[in-house]
Design brief:
It is a single chain. By secondary structure, this protein is of the alpha/beta class. It is built from 9 helices and 11 strands. It has helices at 3-9, 50-65, 82-87, 92-116, 138-146, 164-175, 208-213, 221-229, 244-249, and strands spanning 30-35, 69-74, 121-125, 134-135, 150-154, 179-184, 189-190, 202-203, 205-207, 234-238, 256-259. The two termini are 16 Å apart.
Length: 264
C-alpha cells in the first residue's frame, strides 16, 4: 500500500474535530458511497421510502457542504434481485438486466431527494436511456464532480454477472475516489451475522486478504480484489446512525476499515 493512501486510510485523530463540536474539515477530497437497494426501503417491505431517502440526502448534503466530491452507486435489491430470480429459473443475464433497471429507478428517487435538499445531482447510467439519465462517461462524471455536483452511477457496470459492489469498486477507481464508504445495517464487519448471533465479534480493521480468506460477506470477492489491486480503502459503517457519513468523511473512526496494511 502506498504511503499516501496509507495515511488517508488511518484514523484522522487531530486531522478533524468532532461533527458534534467545532467546525469540521474533510479528510477526503473525493469519496464513493455505496448504498444497497435495501437501504432505500426504510420501514417498508418493498420499493422506496421517501422519508428514508430524505434522511440519506440530508447526510450527503452535509458532507457536500464540506467541499467533498461525492459519487454514489446504488443497488436495486429493494425492487428486484437478478440472482434470486435466476435461482427460480429465470435466465441469469435477463435477471441481472432487470436488476440494473431497478438501480436506475432507485437513482432517480435518490436524485429527487438530493435536489430537494439543495444538492445539484446527475444520474449517469451504464445502460443508455437518454430520456431519464445521462450515459456514463468517465470524463464527464469527473467533470460533474469538479463542478460540485453529486453523481449517482446507476445500472451497475452495464454487464450481467457483476454485482453493484463490483460496480462501486470499478467506478471508485475510474473517478479517482480516495475511499469507498459501504453503507450497511450494522456498525462494521463481524465474524458472523450480528443480527442472529449476539456473540459476533466486530473488527475495527481488516486487510483485503483477510476479507477474502475468511469469506466475510461484506463485499463480493471481485469487488474486494479490485480494491486490493488499486489500493482503494473501504469503510463499512452503519447508515442508520445520523451523521455517520459526515463522521467518516472528516476522518473519525467509524465502523470497520479495510485496507492493504496490517490489521490492528
Amino acid at each position: 500500500m502506498s504511503e499516501a493512501k496509507a495515511a488517508k486510510a488511518t484514523s484522522a485523530g487531530a486531522a478533524a474535530e468532532s461533527v458534534d463540536g467545532a467546525p469540521t474539515r474533510p479528510r477526503y477530497r473525493r469519496i464513493l458511497l455505496k448504498l444497497s437497494g435495501e437501504a432505500l426501503l426504510g420501514s417498508r417491505q418493498y420499493g422506496v421510502d421517501p422519508n428514508f431517502c430524505a434522511f440519506i440526502a440530508a447526510q450527503v448534503a452535509e458532507v457536500h457542504q464540506l467541499g467533498v466530491e461525492i459519487g454514489i452507486v446504488v443497488g436495486g435489491g429493494n425492487i428486484f434481485r437478478g440472482l434470486a430470480a435466476a435461482a427460480k429459473g429465470m435466465d441469469r443475464a435477463t435477471g441481472d438486466y432487470i436488476g440494473m433497471l431497478a438501480t436506475v429507478m432507485n437513482a432517480l428517487a435518490l436524485q429527487d431527494a438530493l435536489e430537494k435538499a439543495g444538492v445539484q445531482t446527475r444520474v449517469m447510467s451504464a445502460i443508455g436511456m437518454n430520456e431519464v439519465a445521462e450515459p456514463y462517461i468517465r470524463r464527464r462524471a469527473v467533470r460533474h464532480l469538479e463542478k460540485g455536483r453529486v453523481i449517482i452511477l446507476a445500472a451497475g457496470t452495464g454487464n450481467p454477472y457483476f454485482t453493484t459492489d463490483t460496480a462501486a469498486a470499478l467506478r471508485a477507481v475510474e473517478i479517482g475516489a480516495e475511499i469507498i464508504l459501504k453503507a450497511t445495517k450494522v456498525d462494521g464487519v463481524y465474524d458472523s451475522d450480528p443480527l442472529t448471533n449476539p456473540n459476533a465479534v466486530r473488527y475495527e480493521r481488516l486487510t483485503y486478504s483477510q476479507v477474502l480468506a475468511q469469506r466475510l460477506r461484506v463485499l463480493d470477492a471481485t469487488a474486494v480484489s479490485l480494491c486490493m489491486e488499486n489500493d482503494t480503502p473501504i469503510i463499512v459503517f452503519d447508515l442508520n446512525k445520523p451523521q455517520n457519513i459526515t463522521r467518516v468523511a472528516v476522518g473519525e473512526t467509524v465502523g470497520t476499515l479495510i485496507t492493504g496494511g496490517s490489521p490492528a
